[in-house]
Design goal:
alpha/beta; binds 6-hydroxymethylpterin-diphosphate; 40% helix; 10 strands
Length: 295
């Protein structure tokens, strides 16, 4: 897409879309937006690294999700298992019992919900309860997850993770992190699309088996990843590499660092930003876009 005259479209003018194999609340089978849209994070967990325990009560989680949509989130991402470095896996039925009621209540209010899970059974139950897409931090490793998404007509966020949360930060190594992560994502995406998943979003998985330098290289490679034609999601919100750069210990105090990282990602063509602080990111994106449009 081009903007005025022959200049290339600025990041906030670039159109992105996501196709669904079954109608969303309201009947559409495609979401369309310009620039970077927000995916709000609602973790229904006791132990997530930055908001653990904040939304463990289903009523609180639903209220938080609705507030995020009011403030401008396009999608609300509901998760029931912490995948922070070192986290132990949660029992599958426990994970489902955390997320399904929240997904159901948000979807019933017309919210486009993604379920953040590595378990195909949790994805399946959440899609049956009204989730519109699946956010799989294990990058569709499980063929059954691909089948569940294809059968339900649900697009998937394909995220790269090196190994497992329990061990992924021990000594992550790559010869060429950008090339290896990109190759992984493109292969997983093609496999999913060939199996009938209606659409995919690619995510390099900041913090998931990556050093600070790996994270910085991957974030700065957002434009080269986006050039492959799939929407790109960036999730830097409150992560420890930002804390290390900015010298901020407490995850909840890393808002300024998160906004800086996400504005960079937006300028580099990210279609979606996965954030805990929707209102603050909305403001930052609105100002950045307005200033750029007037420059
Ligand atoms: N990061 C987290 C969880 N899910 N999904 C995608 N697609 N991309 C990410 O970067 C990503 C993700 C980790 O953040 P959070 O959910 O806040 O923490 P926890 O895993 O401790 O629940």
């Amino acid at each position: 897409m081009t903007g005025a005259g022959s200049r290339p479209a600025a990041w906030h003018e670039v159109e992105h879309s996501l196709r669904f194999g079954r109608p969303l609340p309201g009947g559409a089978t495609e979401l369309r937006w310009r620039g970077a849209a927000l995916m709000g994070v609602v973790n229904v967990t006791p132990d997530s690294f930055s908001d653990g325990g904040a939304h463990l009560d289903p009523g609180d989680a639903v209220a938080a999700g609705l507030r995020m949509v009011e403030r401008g989130a396009l999608i609300v991402d509901v998760g029931g298992e912490s995948t922070r470095p070192g986290a132990a896996p949660v029992d599958e039925s426990e994970e489902a019992s955390r997320v399904v009621p929240v997904v159901e209540a948000l979807a019933a209010r017309g919210v486009v919900v993604s379920v953040d899970t590595r378990r195909h059974s949790v994805a399946e139950a959440s899609l049956a309860a009204g989730a519109a897409l699946v956010n799989d931090v294990s990058g569709l490793r499980d063929p059954a997850m691909v089948e569940v998404c294809a059968r339900a007509g649900a697009p998937a966020v394909v995220m790269h993770m090196l190994g497992e949360p329990r061990t992924m930060q021990m000594d992550p190594r790559y010869d060429d992190v950008v090339a290896e992560v990109t190759d992984y994502l493109l292969v997983a995406a093609e496999r999913a699309l060939a199996a009938g998943v209606p659409d995919v979003v690619l995510d390099v998985g900041l913090g998931f088996g990556k050093t600070l330098d790996h994270n910085v290289a991957l974030l700065n490679a957002t434009s080269s990843l986006a050039a492959h034609g799939h929407p790109v999601l960036v999730g830097a919100s409150r992560k420890s590499f930002l804390g290390r750069i900015a010298g901020v210990e407490r995850p909840a105090d890393r808002l300024g660092a998160s906004i800086a990282a996400h504005l960079q990602a937006a300028r580099l063509g990210a279609a979606l930003l996965r954030v805990h602080d929707v209102e603050e990111h909305r403001q930052a994106l609105a100002v950045a876009a307005a200033l750029e449009a007037a420059a």
